[in-house]
Amino acid sequence: MSDEKVSLEFLAAQMERLLHEQRLLRQEMDVIRDDLTVRHGMVQRLDGTVQGLVTEVRAMHSRHARPERRVGKLEEERN
User: Fold this and answer.
1) CA distance linking residue 29 with residue 79, whole number of Å
2) How many Å apart are CA 43 and CA 34, to the nearest integer?
3) How many CA atoms lie less than 13 Å away from 74 in the CB half-sphere?
4) How far apart are CA 26 and CA 70, in angstroms?
5) 26 vs 14, 38, 49, CA distance in Å?
6) Is the dihedral of CA 68, 71, 73, 79 positive or negative?
7) Would the CA dihedral through 15, 16, 17, 20 be positive or negative?
8) CA-CA distance, 44 to 51, in Å (whole number)?
9) What is the pLDDT along the chain (79 residues), one digit of tens a residue?
10) How far is 43 from 37, CA to CA, in rounded Å?
């Protein structure tokens, strides 16, 4: 170990540097948190859109299959 003495001014300067870095990191974390919130909202919206599309496609399939079922039923009755 070194026998050099550390002054209070040096320790104070180091503490100020660390506190400044901590403030910068917190600011960056706030930006990242906001970005994540926005992206989360985008994903939720897209998920809702996909779910809506799935429902719509199922309804369209059912609507298009209805005449086929009717024709099939009429053909069965005819035979």
Assistant:
1) 74
2) 14
3) 6
4) 66
5) 18, 18, 34
6) negative
7) positive
8) 10
9) 567 889 999 999 999 999 999 999 999 999 999 999 999 999 999 999 999 999 999 999 999 889 888 888 888 888 7
10) 10
Label each residue of the chain as H, E or C: CCCCCCCHHHHHHHHHHHHHHHHHHHHHHHHHHHHHHHHHHHHHHHHHHHHHHHHHHHHHHHHHHHHHHHHHHHHHHHC
Give the number of other Cβ atoms within 10 Å of residue 58's Cβ: 10
For residue 79, give the amino acid letter: N
Q: What is the pTM of this model?
A: 0.57
